[in-house]
Amino acid sequence: MTMTQKQCLLRYCGFYAGDIDGILGEQSQRATIDFQRSYMDTVDGIFGDATEKRILAVVASGEPPQKSSGWWKDIRYFQRSEFRCPCGKCGGFPAEPSETLVRLADKVRAHFNAPATVSSGVRCQAHNDSLKGSVPNSYHVRGKAMDFCVRGVPGERLLAYVKTLPVHYAYRIDDSFIHMDVS
């Protein structure tokens, strides 16, 4: 397995946020250590045969990361997997969810103290184009938009609160769900 493939797998699992450059640098090693801490008994920072076997098993199972690295570790209520493109063809993350967006969503969830459901996060361009009413330059394609609801909170009330936050644009989709995007 090449270093480029290893970086792609680490990114897919939510542990690597650097450039996919095929270089075993500090970020790649840190991501390997974070993955090993979450999934393995041995933590040595070496992406050897045992780590390769385990990461392939994790990817094949579809299980979400047990612990996220980077800024995701500070997110209390959401997991990266909730923002995945649902098309099943693009790998799920043609763009990374925006840190600003996810932090705002976490703030909304904390404010209402009730579970939130993401109905649409990141979208690949093909999936976005297949949706009725979507626009070609959707913020979803760039990882800067989400559609969601908070259990028990009417869409109108949810939207009113979201509009008090530093969002780029927000609107109500229906009685429960709203759209929120950031610059």
Overview of the molecule:
- The protein has 183 residues and is of the alpha+beta class.
- It is built from six helices and four strands.
- The chain has helices at residues 3-12, 26-39, 49-61, 99-112, 125-130, 155-162; strands at 116-120, 145-150, 169-172, 178-181.
- Strands 1-2-4-3 form a four-stranded antiparallel beta sheet.
- Helix 1 (3-12) crosses helix 3 (49-61).
- The radius of gyration is 18 Å and the shape is elongated.
List the secondary-structure elements in sequence, H or E.
Answer: HHHHEHEHEE
The chain-level mean pLDDT equals 90
Cross-sheet strand order for the largest sheet: 1-2-4-3
Note the beta-strand portion: 5-15%
What is the global morphology? elongated
**Mind describing the biggest β-sheet?**
4 strands, antiparallel
Helix content: 25-40%
Helix-strand category:
alpha+beta
The tally of helices reads 6
Could you tell me the number of beta strands? 4
Distance between the termini: 37 Å
Poorly predicted regions: none
Q: What radius of gyration results from the CA coordinates?
A: 18 Å
